[in-house]
Specification:
Layout: H1 3-19, E1 26-33, E2 36-38, E3 42-50, E4 53-60, H2 62-72, H3 83-102, E5 109-111, E6 115-118, E7 124-127, E8 131-138, E9 141-150
Helix pairs in contact: 1-3, 2-3
Length: 151
């Protein structure tokens, strides 16, 4: 895996969350998996093509997703993760992708629109590519970024 792509996505997440009022998000763990699986309550998938092919997934417990959406929506209480907070979370992923790709050669990398998958007890295999898993924590909760790059 090319470290410049990994660093671009870590920086993109930290930059965007900082701008949105989640400036206490800090990296708390790093591991590697043989494949990209999702198993949290809320998962936002982004595909990447062009100069680098692969997938990036932001995963979190539902409470974290509601806390982040609440912050993004001006402190509005989010009792249920319905379409409005899900839309806010997809916009977060869009912003992270845009910020990350801006740090790369934007002509050679394209990102897909985000796909949000949510529910209890979900386990899905996204890719058979070796995956770097980066854990983050904040007062809002925990977020995991999984980066699976091909080639």
């Amino acid at each position: 895996m090319d470290i410049k792509f990994i660093n671009a996505f870590i920086s993109g997440l930290l930059n965007v969350t900082g701008m949105l009022g989640l400036s206490d998000l800090k990296r708390s763990g790093l591991s590697k998996k043989e494949r990209l699986e999702i198993d949290k309550d809320v998962n936002i998938l982004l595909g990447m093509t062009g100069g680098m092919n692969g997938n990036i997934v932001l995963s979190m417990p539902e409470q974290t997703a509601r806390n982040i959406a609440s912050t993004m929506m001006g402190g509005m209480e989010i009792a249920v993760l319905d379409m409005m907070p899900k839309s806010a979370l997809c916009e977060l992923a869009n912003m992270v992708a845009g910020n990350s790709v801006a740090g790369l050669d934007a002509d050679s990398v394209s990102m897909s629109p985000p796909t949000l998958i949510s529910g209890q007890n979900i386990v899905a295999l996204v890719s058979l590519v070796e995956t770097l898993v980066i854990d983050f924590t904040a007062a809002a909760g925990s977020v995991t970024m999984s980066i699976a790059l091909e080639g």
